[in-house]
Q: What sequence folds into this?
């Protein structure tokens, strides 16, 4: 770890000010990605701005047909929320299968989305449910949010405050975990609801993306069988020692069917 | 008092471990201690053009920066390999220099280039980044088969062709003749995947110098502190052994990787004297991945000759083994004497010939890892036997039975040097078949198929040579040390006992098991016994723990010392009871005059020895004896494991659904500890077969599996609930009748599991059976089925 300045602001506005005035500032939410990289000297922030002192960013509300989750809400709290489970069970179970208990008790939804790890689970739910990302300056539609490998639509100095998920009619998530890291090697979130029929894939590409051919098929016939024979191109999919692009492309089909089956 | 032997006594060491009160090397802090960080090579193969340490030396808190020039100037010797293996032409193996800090060349990613010592760890890390090394990058070679081909990049000028040795064992002509007469020849090519040990506690070292006595102390995560002291003093520093104390306190797992003398403890202890301050180093996990000695990494072609009735006639095996960039402490013996000598397995195969070529490559050194050579042998034998059964369309259990060495055939001389002492292989197999419900397998398979799943079953009837080892035998094979063990048993005047053992416990539970042995010997409560190990200033010279040897060899040394005390006690008792020594019997804590009710308890005898007012006049006072035990033979634990898997052909995910293990470890002292050892071994074996595998990039030589993000360790949800059982043929040549249990699971499991997986898939795949590999094989199976 290199030395850095530590701040613990009490408002989002103060955090934004600190972030914009720091030369290499980093926001600290749950720290489940940031802290290990700092410890390994892979990340060298000048300033660490701990959001943990800001009140009201860790609330979970269901209102107006939406589940609104504060950016600092821990995965374990989403997983354990009766309100979330009642409204979008697939979202609660997705959160309950992120990492391990230690990760779930520290990691936050805002941190996960700001980092946009290609193998994170939340991006699949955000894109699959057509969620809206609220920041200190605007709202961003999920379709406009994920831009590439660890790349999002967030501007410098922009801070996620909450994510709102429209409550779907049906939703399901199926994850094929990387055997070593247990991140998603392929995760598919399917939903049918206010945002239409959506199929979102994480783990397989540079960032979460939608599988439109599957969406079209499911829009006509919401069943796992409707996905038979729909292939995903392996072009531009991730390839590593755990799975080739071709294998991942195949798994998207399998996981999509399992997600539909889980959605009911 | 109830006998302790055979009782599942709770581990006395666990209270301190599970309450966080163990004392590991990193828990030890010495006054004025400084911290070392090693600058490691980022390249797999490069010439060092220059090293500029000037900026690092001036950085805040820096005490010293050392490079290979400094160790060379101080005549610090290189790391050694302690076992000479001779090639077919009679030449000893090639032993290129292995400098503690690199001199002019680096040969693997993680090789030691410089050592930075500072007041704090952070300062040492900061300064390490300021060491400027100018490299001339060379082409690396990673694959051992590629390394021994003409034109491969050369690692060491004194090892032409990158060959360490080209060795053989067995009767080549007899084996060739056996193949000529065979009705069937079964062939197999396999890869035994390279593993990274990953003990829970990373390696660590503290070097300390006492100027007043000119004495060095090395705290080390060692499985064999005396051997480390011997190597450091006699071969590396050139100093008398009484001036170096090695302490290996609580050690959190070793699996072989902590047997060896590494650069880090060598450098820390040397530097401590140089700067007259204690120097501490603790590996980060990424350093463990890069620089702990790895295991396995064999490429093998094997052929089995079988007659028309399924009798094995001959086995020939050709292996290329990767030894990494330099020779680790016992690297040479692992793919030779610990490997090919086990190729008879449990069978009467009359002719066996093995040849092993070992290669230097630009990878971390490879040495013993749980099982060390014996898992590789079992993997060859049990895979090819299973394939033979498939090709001959015989039941794999029946084929094994036809070839087992019979229970009445012991001692049994194999064609590959070993003489098995005892065993009942068919009994273990039969028990395992029951435990696995083999009879019900076809119904279970049909049920899986109805659900679209592929089910398979696989056997491994393994054998290992443990209780390592008779000194004269290993000496004749090139080992540089004797492999006996020591013990010292010391009664305190009021009856409690200190037992000093040269064995070292790093998870095995010696403090419990050894205490059970002593409690029974003397008929005293186990609470009155303390086992002391791991400190060369307390314990007599000993050889340490590896090769499932602690109880068979170390335990036998303890028994020897106990027996001497009992003999002495008889003399004291005879005096007190006014009887003849010949008439004194000892049982259950009492010395008794045979055939009378006259007796004296051991506590009184001990007290008398220390307060010898009324005492035999020609007898020394005190109640303390040493014992040394050099085994007469190896021990031969053996058994059968049966694995059953269910594969999801859509994803390639394997569920290990059933595991039956029946092991013959001879007499068992603590069944609970043995069962734990079996579980751990199987978990590691399943890890090898399904999940683990060190991967280096073939072009750059970078370690791609350098963290737990990419190196897959087995976890609880990868494992079934194991069904374990034991059979017992006591070891006939050690006083406890024990054989050793530490490595069995890791030896048996890979073959059993791969036999099950390939049974389900109907095709061969290599370890690790990753999901994608299995998925592809399952797709091919589907296509084959569709084509038929």
A:
């Amino acid at each position: 770890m290199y030395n850095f300045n530590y701040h613990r602001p009490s408002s989002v506005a103060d955090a934004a000010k600190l972030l914009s005035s720091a030369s290499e500032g980093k926001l600290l939410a749950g720290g489940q990605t940031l802290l290990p990289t700092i410890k390994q000297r892979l990340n060298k922030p000048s300033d660490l701005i701990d959001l943990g002192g800001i009140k009201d960013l860790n609330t979970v509300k269901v209102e107006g047909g939406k589940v609104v989750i504060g950016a600092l809400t821990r995965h374990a709290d989403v997983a354990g929320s009766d309100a979330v489970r009642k409204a979008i069970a697939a979202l609660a179970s997705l959160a309950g299968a992120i990492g391990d208990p230690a990760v779930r008790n520290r990691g936050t939804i805002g941190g996960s989305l700001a980092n946009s790890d290609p193998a994170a689970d939340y991006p699949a739910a955000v894109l699959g449910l057509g969620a809206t990302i609220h920041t200190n300056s605007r709202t961003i539609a999920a379709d406009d949010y994920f831009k590439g490998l660890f790349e999002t639509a967030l501007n410098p100095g922009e801070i996620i405050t909450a994510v709102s998920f429209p409550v779907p009619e049906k939703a399901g998530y199926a994850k094929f975990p990387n055997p070593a890291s247990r991140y998603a090697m392929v995760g598919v979130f399917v939903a049918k609801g206010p945002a239409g029929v959506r199929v979102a894939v994480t783990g397989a590409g540079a960032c979460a993306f939608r599988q439109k051919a599957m969406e079209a098929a499911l829009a006509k016939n919401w069943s796992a069988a409707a996905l038979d024979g729909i292939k995903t191109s392996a072009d531009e999919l991730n390839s590593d020692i755990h799975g080739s692009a071709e294998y991942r492309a195949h798994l998207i089909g399998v996981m999509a069917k399992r997600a539909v089956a889980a959605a009911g | 008092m109830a006998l302790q032997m055979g009782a599942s006594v709770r581990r006395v060491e666990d209270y301190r471990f599970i309450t966080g009160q163990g004392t590991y090397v990193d828990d030890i802090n010495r006054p004025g201690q400084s911290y070392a960080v090693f600058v490691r090579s980022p390249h797999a193969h490069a010439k060092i053009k220059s090293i500029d340490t000037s900026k690092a030396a001036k950085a805040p808190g820096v005490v010293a920066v050392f490079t290979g020039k400094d160790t060379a100037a101080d005549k610090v010797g290189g790391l050694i390999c302690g076992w000479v293996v001779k090639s077919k032409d009679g030449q000893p193996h090639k032993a290129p220099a292995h400098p503690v800090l690199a001199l002019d060349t680096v040969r693997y990613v993680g090789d030691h280039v410089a050592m930075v010592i500072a007041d704090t760890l952070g300062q040492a890390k900061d300064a390490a980044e300021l060491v400027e090394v100018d490299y001339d990058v060379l082409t690396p070679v990673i694959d051992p088969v590629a390394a021994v081909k003409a034109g491969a990049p050369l690692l060491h000028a004194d090892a032409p062709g990158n060959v360490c040795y080209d060795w053989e064992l067995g009767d080549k002509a007899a084996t060739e003749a056996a193949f000529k007469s065979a009705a069937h020849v079964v062939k197999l090519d396999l890869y035994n995947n390279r593993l990274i040990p990953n003990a829970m506690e990373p390696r660590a070292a503290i070097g300390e110098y006492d100027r007043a006595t000119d004495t060095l102390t090395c705290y080390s995560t060692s499985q064999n502190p005396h051997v480390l002291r011997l190597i450091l003093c006699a071969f590396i520093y050139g100093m008398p052994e009484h001036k170096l104390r090695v302490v290996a306190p609580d050690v959190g797992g070793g699996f072989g990787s902590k047997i060896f003398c590494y650069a880090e403890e060598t450098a820390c202890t040397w530097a401590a004297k140089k700067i007259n301050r204690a120097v501490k180093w603790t590996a980060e996990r990424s350093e463990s991945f890069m620089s702990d000695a790895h295991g396995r990494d064999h490429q093998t072609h094997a052929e089995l000759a079988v007659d028309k009735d399924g009798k094995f006639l001959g086995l020939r095996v050709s292996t290329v083994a990767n030894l990494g960039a330099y020779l680790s402490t016992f690297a040479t013996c692992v793919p030779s004497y610990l490997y090919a000598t086990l190729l008879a397995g449990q069978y009467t195969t009359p002719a066996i010939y093995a040849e092993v070529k070992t290669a230097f490559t630009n990878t971390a050194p490879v040495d013993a890892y749980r099982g060390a050579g014996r898992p590789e042998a079992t993997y060859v034998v049990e895979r090819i036997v299973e394939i033979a059964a498939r090709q001959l369309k015989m039941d794999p259990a029946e084929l094994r039975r036809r070839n087992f060495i019979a229970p009445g055939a012991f001692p049994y001389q194999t064609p590959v040097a070993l003489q098995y002492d005892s065993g009942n292989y068919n009994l273990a197999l039969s028990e395992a078949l029951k435990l696995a419900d083999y009879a019900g397998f076809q119904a279970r398979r049909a049920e899986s198929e109805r659900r679209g799943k592929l089910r398979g079953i696989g056997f491994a009837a393994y054998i290992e040579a443990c209780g390592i080892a008779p000194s004269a035998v290993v000496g004749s094979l090139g080992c540089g040390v004797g492999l006996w063990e020591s013990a010292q048993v010391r009664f305190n005047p009021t009856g409690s006992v200190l037992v000093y053992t040269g064995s070292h416990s790093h998870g095995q539970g010696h403090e419990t098991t050894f205490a059970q042995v002593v409690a029974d010997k003397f008929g005293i409560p186990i609470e009155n016994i303390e086992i002391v190990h791991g400190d060369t200033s307390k314990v007599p010279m000993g050889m340490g723990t590896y090769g499932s040897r602690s109880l068979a060899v170390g335990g036998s040394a303890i028994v020897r010392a106990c027996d001497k005390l009992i003999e002495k006690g008889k003399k004291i008792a005879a005096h007190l009871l006014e009887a003849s020594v010949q008439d004194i019997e000892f049982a259950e804590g009492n010395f008794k005059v045979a055939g009378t009710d006259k007796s004296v308890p051991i506590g009184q005898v001990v007290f008398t020895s220390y307060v010898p007012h009324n005492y035999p006049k020609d007898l020394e006072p005190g109640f303390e004896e040493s014992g040394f035990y050099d085994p007469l033979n190896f021990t031969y634990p053996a058994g059968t494991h049966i694995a059953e898997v269910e594969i999801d052909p859509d994803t390639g995910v394997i569920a290990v659904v059933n595991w039956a293990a029946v092991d013959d470890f001879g007499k068992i002292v603590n069944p609970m500890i043995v069962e734990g050892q079996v579980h751990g071994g199987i978990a590691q074996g399943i890890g090898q077969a399904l999940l683990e595998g060190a991967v280096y990039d073939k072009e750059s030589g970078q370690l791609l599996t350098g963290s737990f993000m990419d190196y897959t360790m087995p976890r609880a949800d990868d494992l079934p609930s194991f069904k374990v059982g034991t059979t017992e043929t006591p070891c006939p040549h050690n006083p406890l009748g024990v054989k050793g249990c530490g490595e069995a699971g890791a030896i048996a499991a890979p073959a059993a599991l791969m036999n099950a997986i390939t049974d389900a898939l109907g095709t061969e795949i290599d370890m690790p059976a990753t999901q994608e590999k299995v998925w592809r094989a399952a797709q091919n199976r589907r296509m084959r089925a569709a084509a038929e």
